[in-house]
């Protein structure tokens, strides 16, 4: 069963990756580069300081950082346990896929997907009462996930499991945040 899932994942990856259009390559490389999102990360923290008094804003900022860093650490533990090669490092499909990046660490599951989903969902949960439009932040992890398939470094299953892990971490940390932050409300 696991081998069948891997085969479907590989076939879906080859199909989705093959939809890429060369004239959009620079866009997707820009999207997938973490450093290019620094203005968005700064905006997240500014939103907290606009929405809350400084103590609650600082407390909430520390919690979103803890959420992201914990998700990142867990991702790396899992990657080093499963040792699944990235699509760009698979010789049997290298000739039929578009490879725009060549990281050499492992694939399962996507750290980009997990951390961006965790941070975005935590941000949404913590600010939904202040900013009803905050749900638009979900565009960020969705673009991140698509970019990982487009540039040839993650299977669809990697990004879906990453998103699920991000949801679990965000929900868990948000519950801890609510319990421990009662004095700031």
Automatic annotation (TrEMBL):
<feature type="transmembrane region" description="Helical">
    <location>
        <begin position="27"/>
        <end position="50"/>
    </location>
</feature>
<keyword id="KW-0472">Membrane</keyword>
<feature type="transmembrane region" description="Helical">
    <location>
        <begin position="133"/>
        <end position="153"/>
    </location>
</feature>
<dbReference type="Pfam" id="PF01569">
    <property type="entry name" value="PAP2"/>
</dbReference>
<dbReference type="InterPro" id="IPR036938">
    <property type="entry name" value="PAP2/HPO_sf"/>
</dbReference>
<feature type="transmembrane region" description="Helical">
    <location>
        <begin position="106"/>
        <end position="126"/>
    </location>
</feature>
<protein>
    <submittedName>
        <fullName>Phosphatidic acid phosphatase</fullName>
    </submittedName>
</protein>
<keyword id="KW-0812">Transmembrane</keyword>
<dbReference type="InterPro" id="IPR000326">
    <property type="entry name" value="PAP2/HPO"/>
</dbReference>
<feature type="domain" description="Phosphatidic acid phosphatase type 2/haloperoxidase">
    <location>
        <begin position="61"/>
        <end position="174"/>
    </location>
</feature>
<feature type="transmembrane region" description="Helical">
    <location>
        <begin position="57"/>
        <end position="75"/>
    </location>
</feature>
<keyword id="KW-1133">Transmembrane helix</keyword>
<feature type="transmembrane region" description="Helical">
    <location>
        <begin position="159"/>
        <end position="177"/>
    </location>
</feature>
């Amino acid at each position: 069963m696991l081998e069948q899932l891997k085969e479907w994942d590989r076939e879906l990856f080859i199909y989705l990756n093959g939809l890429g259009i060369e004239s959009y390559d620079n866009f997707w490389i820009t999207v997938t580069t973490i450093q290019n999102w620094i203005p968005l990360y700064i905006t997240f923290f500014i939103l907290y300081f606009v929405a809350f008094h400084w103590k609650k804003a600082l407390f909430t900022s520390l919690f979103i950082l803890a959420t992201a860093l914990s998700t990142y650490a867990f991702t790396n533990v899992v990657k080093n346990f499963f040792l699944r090669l990235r699509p760009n490092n698979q010789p049997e499909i290298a000739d039929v896929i578009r490879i725009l990046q060549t990281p050499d660490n492992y694939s399962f599951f996507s750290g980009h997907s997990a951390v961006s989903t965790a941070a975005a969902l935590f941000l949404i949960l913590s600010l939904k009462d202040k900013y009803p439009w905050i749900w638009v932040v979900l565009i960020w992890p969705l673009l991140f996930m698509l970019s990982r398939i487009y540039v040839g470094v993650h299977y669809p299953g990697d990004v879906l499991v990453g998103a699920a892990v991000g949801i679990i971490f965000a929900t868990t940390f948000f519950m801890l945040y609510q319990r421990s932050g009662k004095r700031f409300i």
